[in-house]
Amino acid sequence: MLALPDVAAAQTIAPVVAAHLAGGGMLAYPTETVYGLGSLPTDAGLDALAALKGRPPRKPFLLLVSGMAMLERTGLVLGPAARALADAFWPGPLTLVLSGAEGRLPDRLRGAEGGIAVRWTSHPAMAALIDRIGSPITSTSANRPGGAPAPGAASVAALFPEAIATGRLLVIDGGVLGNVPPSTLIDCTGPMPVLIRDGAIPRDELRRRVGRHAP
């Protein structure tokens, strides 16, 4: 288990985390909403993550990025509505489903609408860690199917003891998180944005900030 109390710690632990991920390992880590599980966005990483969660192997995971420059390197496309939403709420608890990234990211990250879900995390230490690693990481809530997400590192350890004992799962301890809703999820692959999941950003706030670009 590695402690991540602040941005400075992210710089210190980044080489260890990068090596663990490059070797096919997975992470448990804090975000601005809930603790997440993740890997590098590779077929091997996605296989391992699906097996850990006990979920269908082709069910997509979202990506966390550290900023717009990293998003642009993926090849994902921000249309006018997505750009307005990103300008208003990123970094923050808003996940956008975007088109693009053909040939750059595994197609199995795509949902039924053909897009890939991505969020610029507003957790400062995790954003710094992802930036230092130099790659987006996948993200899914740290829980067993049907269970509540783990609120802290100790809860993650209780859920996945075998994966931790075998070295497949590295836990990043960012403290205990409060009872925060998951990110708001919006599909921006079509001509008009569509709200897929209510979350931390209320609908009225979406409409107040971005007007006609709100779902």
Describe this structure in words.
The protein is α/β, with parallel strands linked by helices and 215 residues long. The protein has a single domain, classed as DHBP synthase. 34% of the residues lie in helices and 21% in strands. It has eight helices and eleven strands. Strands 1, 2, 3, 4, 5, 6, 7, 8, 9, 10 and 11 form an eleven-stranded mixed β-sheet that branches.
Write the CATH architecture name. Alpha-Beta Complex
Q: Which regions contain 5 or more consecutive residues with pLDDT less than 50?
A: none
Q: Work out the number of β strands.
A: 11
Instruction: Report the biggest beta sheet as strand number plus sense, adding barrel if it closes.
Output: 11 strands, mixed
CATH class: Alpha Beta
Number of helix segments?
8
Shape: globular
Give the CATH superfamily: DHBP synthase
Helix/strand/pairing category: alpha/beta
Beta-strand content bin: 15-25%
Topology summary:
Elements: E1 2-3, H1 7-22, E2 26-29, E3 36-38, H2 43-53, E4 62-65, H3 68-74, E5 76-77, H4 80-89, E6 94-100, E7 116-120, H5 124-133, E8 137-141, H6 153-159, H7 161-165, E9 169-173, E10 184-187, E11 194-197, H8 203-210
Parallel strand pairs: 1-9, 2-9, 4-7, 6-10
Antiparallel strand pairs: 2-3, 3-8, 4-8, 5-6, 6-7, 10-11
Brief rundown of the structure:
The protein is α/β, with parallel strands linked by helices. The chain has helices at 7-22, 43-53, 68-74, 80-89, 124-133, 153-159, 161-165, 203-210; strands at residues 2-3, 26-29, 36-38, 62-65, 76-77, 94-100, 116-120, 137-141, 169-173, 184-187, 194-197.
